[in-house]
Amino acid sequence: MPLIPEEPQIHESAQGPRATPASGRTAPTPRPVPGPRPAAPSRPGRPGPVRPVPPVQRTPRDVAPKPGPSAPAAPAPASVTPQVQLIPASAQGALDAAEEAVDLLLDSGRAPGDVLVITTGERHPWATHELSFGEASYWAQHDAGDDVFYADASAADRAAVRPVVVVAVNGGPESVAVTALPLAHARAGSLLIVCGDPQQINAVLGAGV
Description:
By secondary structure, the protein is α/β, with parallel strands linked by helices. It contains 6 helices and 5 strands. Strands 1-5-4-2-3 form a 5-stranded parallel sheet, with helices on both faces. β4 (162-168), α5 (174-187) and β5 form a beta-alpha-beta unit. The longest helix is centred in the middle third of the chain and has 14 residues, at 94-107.
């Protein structure tokens, strides 16, 4: 007589723990799902409960005074001569070279408000855009002193002294460069960067540039 394989039996133990296992040991009874528990103390690597921080009441002494918009910028000490760096570039590439110089300055930790950019030829696109809103708005950004400021050489005499001045000799009459370079040198507190034709720049600022 052929053996008929037994069908697998599904014991209750597969459904969950048995009340009395075959070994005689008491099986753990199912535990109820825990309800809300009080917050456990925070452990390393696990943030604890966040408690709101009361606002700090600042007294007038805690607030640093802000200079008024009409306060003139402090001139550079007369004894300090700015360092001059020359970046050779054609008139067509001088503005791009100036932009690269500004990026390097900001990447090295210079604050945007430390930098003034002067162009001798075509205006920087930022200056053209801002001037479309009027000169009052344009120069108000200069007076705020919190960002890189771009000025045309014809208006550079109105710009205040900044630690770094970048000049892009990007065209224009030679007389403009002759006037703009010494003016930029006087406006630079510690560093003057000139992007343009080396022979033209040296002829204006001197062979020691």
